[in-house]
Amino acid sequence: MNNKKILFFIERDFHIAMLKPLMLHIYSNNIGDMKIYAPFNKNINMLVRNCLPFFIEATTDPWAWKPNITFMADFSYQYVENLGKIVNIGHGTICKGWFFSKNKISQRENCADLICVPGQIHKERLEAQVFKPILVTGMPKLDNCFNQSLDKEEILAKFHLDPKQKTVLLAPTFNEEFSILPYLQQTNLSKIFPDYINLIVKLHGVSDEAYKKIFMGLKTENRNVYISDSYDIDELLFVSDLLISDVSSVVYEFLSLNKPILLFDSPKQKTYINYDESDLEWEFRDVGYRFDSVEKLPSLIFKALTSTHNLSYCEIGKKFIGVTDGTSSAQIVQAALYLLDGKKENEIAIIKDKENILKSITEMVAKIKTKYIVYLDSTLECSPQMINLLYNHIKQNDKAGIVVPLIYDNEVHLQQMRFRVNLAQEYDFYQTGIQLGYAFTGQSQEIDYILPHCFIIHKKLLMNKYFTDLNNQKLSILELLTYTAQNNYKVLLAYDCLVKRNDKTDDNLEKEPQEQTFLYDEALQKEIDNVSSLSEDELKQKIYENPYNEGTILKLIQFYFHNQQWEQLDIYADMLAHNPRAAYYGIKSLENQGFLEQAYNKLTQTDLNSIRDNELLVNFLVLKAKLLMKLEIMDDVLNILNQAIIQHPSNTESLLTRGIYYFSQGQAVDAITDFNAVLSINPLNTKALQGIALSLQIDNKPAESSLYFLKILANDEENLEAISGLLKNAWITRDFIDAEKALDNYLSFHPANLDVLFTLAGICYETGKFAKARELLDRIMIFEPDFPGARELLEKIKR
């Protein structure tokens, strides 16, 4: 049927090469009308016209055109919302931490109606997280490599390369952590690539332009060099006898042609932000000759071109490219058309009649075997993709009973959302909502799911007689919950989904949202409260099962605070924006990350007068004073600290902070008084001991000061600040005995600390212990022959 409307979403230029074979197939077989949607490229018409024998119009408003099918080659589903059936054909064969993953990041693929993958291995990877159809189709851009439509000699002639010579394709990735390019840039390329080969250079579309220039220089020296600017790669793969690459999809595309490969192992590859040794590119890394130095290339090129190809590599190639008969494009188009004509899934039943919910459910159950029920309030707009996201979530979580997603009450919620996702300002509200949905379901690896805005209610609670209606108004919702819980149905409740509660366009939404109240049975509540000894995963599971238990969330926040996991702490602290204790940890997190102004601004937004916990109030006051001191705003610091000490006279943190304030103002006597008050409570408090030592040092009492530094070192022999203070006093008093002992003790723990070795050598020289000084200097120069000052001091000793 040629009345089909088929849209091609081209997010990035190199997607043209992926989608072009589909366009050619549809055009050749008169399957339907086509248009292109490329919102980020104004020159798309010219780019497509240059690579097709026919014209396809580009549209800026595909929604008005109403396509039946949209093909795409990446995971940015937010741009194709409501544009017919969505078919994602992808654009690669490896993961790089973003694709074909068994982790939750792959859940986003449920936003497509059909996912086409290159090989069986990719399908197996996605099946753990994706419930939508996954079809092994090979890669359309490789069809010409398999359908006997290409002529090797013609192509080489077009590239001005010698058909009598072997041809090597250099196709590296753009990632600096993986790429061979930085290492080739540092060498003489004419020595790396011998004259007896043709060299084809195909750089990634986003590679630095500087790399292209170095190969242009090589081309001027060697006529057998061709530099490809095209995104099409089929001809390059077809004519090449050997591939040189690093960590690129092209490795496994070339492997499907049963040709040899050289793979560069960069010393930086494990520093890649998403490096995961379980990803495809590392699990199946041994598919050719591996090397870690470009100097090995000439001999490896010769070896690879003259040796027999390893047949075991061919078997791996079949796993990565599952269709090698030139029919990938045809199979994808046929499968897409089947989405329009084939049978619809009945696994999800959607109910929109809120007045007759029970009747609707009964009728559905009688007619079809529905596994999951979705209720949508018919008065609300809801992103169709959100159903996919919710369905995926509940399907993989047997404990889930109901999902209430993304309720946007107020500015606080909006800011919490913005904290996690860079929201595009040009989207309307509902597009923004679905953008959040993608981010919370794995597009951002930092977030597992919509935990702060998606409340999971366990079926045990649904069955509890104390369970109340979600907003004490829509009794039909309660009827639905009760019915489905009793009859063992899994339910997706898309209730107020993506709704801005203060939206005046709907009379039902004008009222301020009521406080949500959930009453739990005592046994379950006691079980949830008992979390003090739980691990991080156990605490997160508790929150997952009951996100209303603030005690559990606070325990997790404390866990992150003690382990200095600031980003995770911030996420959960935002969940309890109204809770002063959570706010305190959130402010401390900002302080520890160095965001002092943001921390102080957040603190000023907290109503300290409303805090009834005296200890927490004191902590807030001390924190406020510390922030002001770090910001060098000293005017009100003393008043704040005095207020804290009045509230809690024996709070050591208040006394310590005031002592530090006095010390910073040169009031040594007052500082020592506060530090001694701390020591009366805790005689081993390191900060107080150090404060007194430094105060005495400033007051020109080095001998007394050293006694306090020695008290610190008696309990902590590795305290460098105390050792430094002791050294400073030793140079004043010329008594180096304690300082030398302290340095010796420190080196017993850290024998290769060159700075400490050199300091001790200097003391030994000063006290006439030349043999020991020389031995220390010899140790330094073993590690670092040019260590500053070491050789000069050694020369002084020899004199």
**CATH fold field value of the domain at 143-320:** Rossmann fold
Over the alpha carbons, how many angstroms does the gyration radius reach?
Answer: 34 Å
Mean pLDDT: 75
The count of β-strands is 18
Distance between the termini: 99 Å
Spatial strand order of the main sheet: 3-2-1-4-5-6-7
Task: Tell me the structural class.
Answer: alpha/beta
How would you characterize this protein structure?
The protein is of the alpha/beta class and 799 residues long. Among the domains are: 4-139, Rossmann fold; 143-320, CDP-glycerol glycerophosphotransferase, C-terminal domain (Rossmann fold, 3-Layer(aba) Sandwich); 348-519, no CATH class. It contains 38 helices and 18 strands. The strands form four sheets. The protein has a seven-stranded parallel beta sheet with strand order 3-2-1-4-5-6-7. It has a six-stranded parallel beta sheet with strand order 10-9-8-11-12-13. α1 (15-28) links the parallel β1 and β2 (32-37). The termini are far apart.
